Amino acid sequence: MRLLAIGLLLALPSMAMAAAEPNTQVPSGSRYYAATAVPDRIVASPSVDPSHGFAVAWRTNGSVQSPLLEIARADDTPAIEGIVQVRAKTQVLQTENGLSHHHRADIDGLQPDTLYVYRVQGNGSWSAWNQLRTLAAADQPLTLLYFGDTQNKNVSHVSRVVRAAQKAAPDARISLFAGDLVSGGDDMDDSEWGEWFAAANWLAQETLVAPAIGNHEYFEEFEDTPQERRVLGRHWPMTFALPGNGAGAAAGTSYWFDAQGVRVAVVDGTSALDLGTAKAQAQWLDKVLAGNRQPWTIVLLHQPFYSPREGRENAALRKVLLPVVRRHRVDLVLQGHDHTYGRRGEGQAATPQYVVTVAGPKQYRLSGQARRTMDPVGEDTQLFQVLRIDPQRLRYEARTVTGRLYDAFELRRDDNGGKQRVEQQEGRIAPRDCARAQTAKGRTDRCWE
Ligand SMILES: [Fe+2]
Q1: 135: alpha, beta or left? (left if phi > 0; alpha if psi -120 to 50)
Q2: CA 25, CA 17: separation in Å to the nearest integer?
Q3: Which of 40, 71, 193, 354 has a 20 to 30 A CA-CA distance from 305?
Q4: What is the pLDDT of residues 94-147, one digit of tens each?
Q5: Can you tell me the distance from the alpha carbon of 115 to that of 132, in angstroms, rounded to the nearest whole number?
Q6: How far is the centre of ligand 1, averaged over its atoms, from the C-alpha of 339 (Å)?
Q7: What CATH code is assigned to 40-133?
Q8: What stretch(es) of the chain map to CATH 2.60.40.380?
Q9: Distance between Cα 370 and ligand 1 center (Å)
Q10: For residue 413, how far is its CA from the centre of ligand 1 (angstroms)?
């Protein structure tokens, strides 16, 4: 008996699950992510017409005011010529990492389908020259990446998803994110943003990043009092240089753009659910989709219309916004928030296809209803999605962080303007379930922290 007990103890360390981890790799109180004179947190985002322009946001310390962005046509020589300078607008942010200046430059007048180099200015320093190709005409093929919530442990666990996605789709031009990029929710999340940029790395600088806002990019004011309300976190408007053409009631957090044959409309689900803007956003979305001349449509929002997680029901989204999505026959609805995987449509119709996915390590559990109404579903799996689109086909793939195919289908346009969906079962791995009874912290309603 005693021998057996010793044997079990000896066996335990090699069998143990990784212990619960902190949310960031930098210790609490560390100023590792404080802004300096050297530009960081550089991220490109689409303008309304990304075949002729884009926008860049970056950060420095307080010594830099209205810095320059330089852009030129890319060539093989380091002797970059024909540089055009664009002056940025600057905003000030005070965080647990001190004061930082956040800059935004909008570039337009570019040639379509052309490779450019750009760099951004600090104080006595410049960033690297980054290469970015403007989007082409609608008849050219386009590759996009889509990531569900990253939210936690961005350096430790999210960065390898980003790297895997870039290896799987090195030709991706746009990176869509479901929101909840950080856990944040209060004024102590600057190091989490630092980690998000460390994880996103060159992806943020050399693809056009288009994020939906998640509930964690808001914080609760007057929490646990009758006056409790959601307030937009201060990072969001300064961190991304988004088009700003959203619904009036959610101006900084909803937007749309056209990308080489796809109209992408980004909705603020938190504002719709908690700030009473569902109707206003539905009216805006209706107009944006009615004016769509592109062959494909994607709607991106954080909270799903059909939740795969037990006990979650986003009634206002379903009642107010979903009819607009159905009426305009949106092709793909990309969502997050529920930290599981699940896809469904509406009966036998080819479109819309509703996807919920997760990139980060926080993993929840599927409801029984999700298992009955969605296919495939998945738990305990970090994923990324690759979308390959041309005028006739939209090909969707969900891959696990190790690169294995988890879900795949193709939408095909027929001659009558209709669409067909062809499921691809071949090469998919079996659906994954959570095998743990509880998380390292003892939670039975989740699968991993
Ligand atoms: Fe969320």
Answers
A1: beta
A2: 19
A3: 193
A4: 999 999 999 999 999 999 999 999 999 999 999 999 999 999 988 999 999 999
A5: 6
A6: 8
A7: 2.60.40.380
A8: 40-133
A9: 18
A10: 33
Q: Which CATH architecture has domain 142-448?
A: 4-Layer Sandwich (3.60)
* Residue 28 pLDDT greater than 50, yes or no: yes
What global pTM score does this model have?
Answer: 0.95
In the reported structure, the alpha carbon of residue 300 is separated from the centroid of ligand 1 by a whole-number distance in angstroms of: 14
pLDDT tens-digit map of 374-432: 999 999 999 999 999 999 999 999 999 999 999 999 999 998 879 999 999 999 999 99
At residue 305's C-alpha, the angle toward residues 304 and 309, to 5°, is 55
How far, in Å, CA of 192 to CA of 25, rounded? Answer: 9
The confidence score (pLDDT) of residue 412 equals 98
Give the rounded percent of residues in the chain with a pLDDT score beyond 70: 96
Which residues fall inside 5 Å of ion ligand 1, going by CB?
180, 214-215, 337
**In which residue ranges of the chain is CATH 3.60.21.10 found?**
142-448
DSSP H helices in 169-308 = 190-200, 202-206, 235-239, 269-274, 278-290
Q: What is the CA angle 158-47-277, rounded to 5?
A: 75
